[in-house]
Amino acid sequence: MNIYDIATLAGVSHTTVSRVINDKPGVKQETREKILKILDEQAYFPNSHARGLASNENKVIGIIVIDVRNIHHIHTAFHIEEAFTQYGYVSVIASCGLDDSKQEEYLKVMASRNVEGLVLIGSRFQNNNMKKSIKKYLSDKPVVIANGYIELDNVCGVVVNERKGVSNVVDFLVSKGHKNIGFMNDYVTYSAHNKQEGFLDGIRKNNLMFNEKNIKYIKTELENSEIETEKFLKENPNITAIIYSEDIMAVGAIKACVKMGLKVPEDINIIGFNNSIYSDISIPTISSIDNRNTAMGDRCSKALYSMLNGEKTEAIYHLMPKFKVKDSTN
């Protein structure tokens, strides 16, 4: 059923039907009601893609996350989608995985869908291949990166100062008497690198003795974290606090401590990152660095909407994380 079929049923021209669909004046109320009734009976809705081509406005944005299973990233995507619903847009959400070639493929898909703007969620998008892909496929469309930045005229970055956030937590632990602090990191993204640099900043700032064995790289998985934490603590029995680059890893650490007969926080302090639901459902609850995904989603939404409306935006917006003290630290 198309607009011409609706016009035939209503006994009017297709331009009259178009005026009703687009809520334009110049149609008698009786005729308008008749057409609306037929539209409802026929369950007709306009072809938004065709309308977008005609008006050069598609009212669709794209959102790409690295892994849809990542609770932090998908929460940010949720806030952005919710905001753009209020703006009258539809959001197309995709998960591209860690492969750089997949990132380019999904960017190409978004371009083929004629999205008006794009949000990339995750610091892993901050790479040269993505820069080339944006220039190739979306050079004329606004792009916002959540927790990352690429130096292009059409790109805006919203970045959390995770380095400072971790450094501040080292300060907190030192103020509580901790001198031998560990850091467990997945180390596969710019974000993870910044967190580790923050840990090293804190060690240097507080004049603590640095031992390379105090940093360990592990997978961002619950089971792996439990196994690796147990090994780590057996190799470093003097460690009194460990900072993890993700909350889910810290949950694995709690399980390892229980298995080893260590009390948290009496024997060891555990700190996570993201202040996600994982930190709240753990027993004990886990002190965590809140990288403020609600504020991230809000800032990304406002930045992209401003760019869509031709308004000038900052190249980079900075957010400062907050440390949420819970039961796993004393």
How would you describe this protein?
- The mean pLDDT is 93.
- The termini are far apart.
- It contains 13 helices and 12 strands.
- α6 packs parallel to α7 (128-137).
- It has 3 domains: 3-46, Orthogonal Bundle (434 Repressor (Amino-terminal Domain)), CATH 1.10.260.40; 58-159 and 293-316, Rossmann fold; 162-291, Rossmann fold, CATH 3.40.50.
- The protein has 330 residues and is an alpha/beta fold.
- The strands form 2 sheets. The chain has a 6-stranded parallel sheet, with helices on both faces.
- The chain is elongated and about 85 Å long.
What does the secondary structure layout of this molecule look like, with pairings?
Layout: H1 3-10, H2 14-21, H3 29-41, H4 48-55, E1 60-65, H5 71-86, E2 90-95, H6 100-112, E3 117-121, H7 128-137, E4 143-146, E5 155-160, H8 162-175, E6 181-185, H9 190-205, E7 215-217, H10 222-235, E8 241-244, H11 247-260, E9 269-273, H12 277-281, E10 287-290, H13 293-308, E11 316-319, E12 322-324
Parallel strand pairs: 1-2, 1-3, 3-4, 4-5, 5-11, 6-7, 6-8, 8-9, 9-10
Antiparallel strand pairs: 10-12
Helix pairs in contact: 1-2, 1-3, 5-13, 6-7, 8-9, 10-11
